[in-house]
Amino acid sequence: MNVYLDHAATTPVRPEVVEAMLPYLTDFYGNSSSIHGIGRKAHAGLDGARRTIADILGAKTNEIIFTSGGSESDNTALRGIALARRRQTGANRIVTTVVEHKAVLETALDLRDHFGFDVTLIPVDGDGMARVDDVAPLLGEDVAVVSVMLANNEVGTIQPVGEIGAICRARGIPFHTDAVQAAGKLPLDVHSLRVDALSGGAHKFYGPKGVGFLYLRQGTPFQPTLTGGSHEGSRRAGTENVAGIVAMAKALELAEIEREVEMRRLQLLRDWLIGGILEKVDGVHLTGSPFHRLPNHASFLINGVEAEGVLIGLDLAGIAASSGSACTSAAQKPSHVLEAMGIPAQDAVGGLRLSLGRSNTPEQIEYVLAKLPRIVEQIRGSVPIAF
Ligand SMILES: Cc1ncc(COP(=O)(O)O)c(C=O)c1O
């Protein structure tokens, strides 16, 4: 049996999405900036996609910027807002959490090391959650931008983005959220989230790789990172990836239509998987919040094993999983997320992330629960290895 449990890493492109994008690779291949008919067809595709995504976010169409993916959206938001706001107000501090994806964390550190910003990292509790009470005192007049992810990629914890956003809004500080893991799984209404900027990437919700979007609220201080032509309202230069963008909009539209029903289904499977693993595998515990977590996300620490061995054992059994960026070998640096949650480096080697999606069935969960305990025992040396 083949079981794909790495949907947090990436997802397959849905057939309906391939169908939607194909005409833009073949018939409507024009440059969307061209005046002629075939260019206008491409431009219409772009307009439709922008409308679809704006509607799902509760945004205006001119507040959506197309990018090459989640990393570019995060970079564009952080760099663009921090630099413009410093120019306008002199604010020189970037506030973000210790558990952000590297696309945010490394960008903040780059802005510190090469552009002279100060960076303050918000701590998290043992569940990987930032506490609103810890954030509020950090938000003074010197803050140029705040960035807090909606859901964590390694441990699935959902952050109190709406509450932090309300404080930022009241103090006039631009607020960005990395919603790359959340898109298609949680509501993305930018008004309830109280965000000025929100990043998404298509390949996490059954769209193609290499395409993403950035919501940028009208009036937010911003300067472009990619300069050149006047594409995307002069906020991101470069001929748009029309087929990819049309595909992304179709994928997000389908995910949004199916979201409530599909997430209920996945949450049931996920809870069965978590319960079964906690029961059948000795010395294992759940990482991240048991309650405030993505409905498709399960992550664990398994005592006395290295993630790499478990992943290889699972792979040999046809199960694709990940360590959730936890270190896969004792020689490597432990995951910054697990470290921030207070997990000692020597324990952080046994991280396992199982992230569910559309292809997963009850039979597959049963299969994983039958295989995993034995794989762990084999690695611990308590039973002979016999794949
Ligand atoms: C939370 C988060 N942010 C950003 C990214 C980067 O997205 P992309 O792969 O589209 O550049 C990822 C991808 O793993 C992610 O999980």
Description of the structure:
This protein has 387 residues and is α/β, with parallel strands linked by helices. It has two domains: 3-8 and 259-380, Aspartate Aminotransferase, domain 1; 15-254, Aspartate Aminotransferase, domain 2 (3-Layer(aba) Sandwich), CATH 3.40.640.10. Helices cover 42% and strands 13% of the residues. The chain has twelve helices and twelve strands. A seven-stranded mixed beta sheet has the order 2-8-7-6-5-3-4, sandwiched between helices. Strands 9-10-12 form a three-stranded antiparallel beta sheet. Helix 1 (15-25) packs antiparallel against helix 9, helix 2 (37-57) runs parallel beside helix 9 (242-280) and helix 9 crosses helix 12. The two termini are 14 Å apart. The protein binds pyridoxal-5'-phosphate (PLP).
The low-confidence parts are: none
Mean pLDDT across every amino acid position:
95
Q: What string gives the helices and strands in order?
A: EHHEHEHEHEHEHEEHHEEHEHEH
Number of extended strands: 12
Radius of gyration: 22 Å
Spatial order of strands in the largest sheet: 2-8-7-6-5-3-4
SSE topology:
Layout: E1 3-4, H1 15-25, H2 37-57, E2 64-67, H3 70-89, E3 93-97, H4 102-115, E4 118-122, H5 132-135, E5 143-147, H6 161-171, E6 175-178, H7 190-193, E7 197-201, E8 212-216, H8 231-234, H9 242-280, E9 284-286, E10 297-302, H10 307-316, E11 319-320, H11 336-340, E12 351-355, H12 362-380
Parallel strand pairs: 1-11, 3-4, 3-5, 5-6, 6-7
Antiparallel strand pairs: 2-8, 7-8, 9-10, 10-12
Helix pairs in contact: 1-9, 2-9, 3-4, 9-12, 10-12
